[in-house]
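hiii so my PI (J.) wants the whole complex modelled not just the main chain, which honestly fair. so below is everything: two entries, each one labled with what it is. i double checked the lines twice but i was tired so who knows lol
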Amino acid sequence: MSVQLGLASILFALFVGIPLGALAAVKHNTWIDYLSSLVTVTGISTPPFVRVVLLILFFSLFLAWLPTGGWEGIWDVRAIIPVIAIGSGPAAILARYTRSSLLEVQGQDYIRTARAKGVREGAITAVHAMKNALIPVVTVTGVTLANVITGAFFVERIYGVPGIGRQFIDSVTGRDYPLLLGIVLVFAVVIMIVNLLTDLSYGYLDPRIRYR
Amino acid sequence: MTTRVEGGASRVARSRVAGEPQPRRARGLWRDAWYRLTRNRAAVVGLFFVVLLVLVALLASILAPYSFDRQDLESTDLGPSGAHLLGTDQLGRDQLSRLLYGSRISLAVAFVDVLIVVVVGVPLGLAAGFFGRWVDTLVMRTVDVLLAFPSLLLVIVVITYLRAVLDQPQGAFLAVVGGLDKVTGGLLGVFIALGLVSWLTVARLVRGQVLSLKEKEFVEAARMVGGTNARIMFRHLLPNTLAPVIVAATFGIPGAIATEAGLSFLGLGVRPPNPSWGILIAEGLRAMRAFPHEMIFPALTLAITLICFNFLGDGLRDALDPKLRVD
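here's the output for the full assembly
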């Protein structure tokens, strides 16, 4: 369950965060940019247990669209709130990085060349600028894994998802030390592997970086 | 004499000749920063809210209509009304009073977080950057190891261990610490666990700054006129690293407040009946379908507080170091 939830949250973060950051960079210093930075600050500053509580209040109690808890697999509507609650933190971080990195790239010479060739503005952003702007963003994605794990502690407990995050919290409150140690070990291994993959991915993304 | 070579804006301000027609009045770094900060609308909102929060925390006993732990079992789970502006919880305690007193806990955490940054993070970073060699290795490897964990995971594990040790203390020292922890309603444990992680980024930041600054001419000049190591570190290097430290400390505060609320939410932090915002949210969660007001107000207060601290941090960053601005 936790792996499904975690992957879905990271995908959510990628598919929401990067377009949001790109949109903010393209329309930068307009109300779209300001709105997106407000959303980003909210996502970065609120902890996941506040986000999930507010989401439940709004979507489950106020609008009554979604159930208030439970887990029936990743394809069920019950997965929507936990995925958004966990994923919105990394999404906000990714959006912020995408925006600043795209703004930086757009000032470079080859973007001006593309513009001089008569390439449409949309194509410049999507093809020329994005490819280079995404390098720092991809490296941050690995780091956001920590947010996903710690986010899962609270969200799985509040929303009643039977995953490893809830196991962890139960082991802490129930003082089940062997289980606690085991779960921390699992987290440590996962984090180490992802950090290693992130480091290795630098070389593929930016051919100037080579490992000897 | 050595104070003249500090560098920074004071030098710029003094170099203006008095009486000459000037396009605008010369200002120091801090006045400049203040000017830029007050031009930033989000930062002003954040600053205003933070000041308000401090006032509320200081005056909580005057402002709160009831005591935070006064139970009234004849009026439990009431909705917002004239007598109880934000309603009551399942034991009939006034929610507004609990929320007001809760701000004290959050601000105490913020204060201790900054204290640890100043007392531990900054000196260690200074020493690591200035002395290099084994001091640097020792401090920075410790930082690396602790930063490798997600901080919340580390804090939860540490506080679980602390709770286990302090509840059945062995030896005089642990008994004293455990007693203090009980008196403060579990806050001391939160402080210890937070203290382990809150100084890391600032130590790294200060070290990086010192590494580049200690090669500058003004350090050489200070050494030449006989400045001791301690004097160079605290009188010359420290002021120049202050701006990023202030920014990092401001960004650290919402993290610390959120961590405390999270721990209390899980039942690991502050103990009931002390009204931490995290506890209020956890208690509100129990009956959220029937009495959503018990959850809405603490959750919104916490969210707004964290956002405002972030606004203030963003504003400070732009004001103190305009070069860092993206656009």
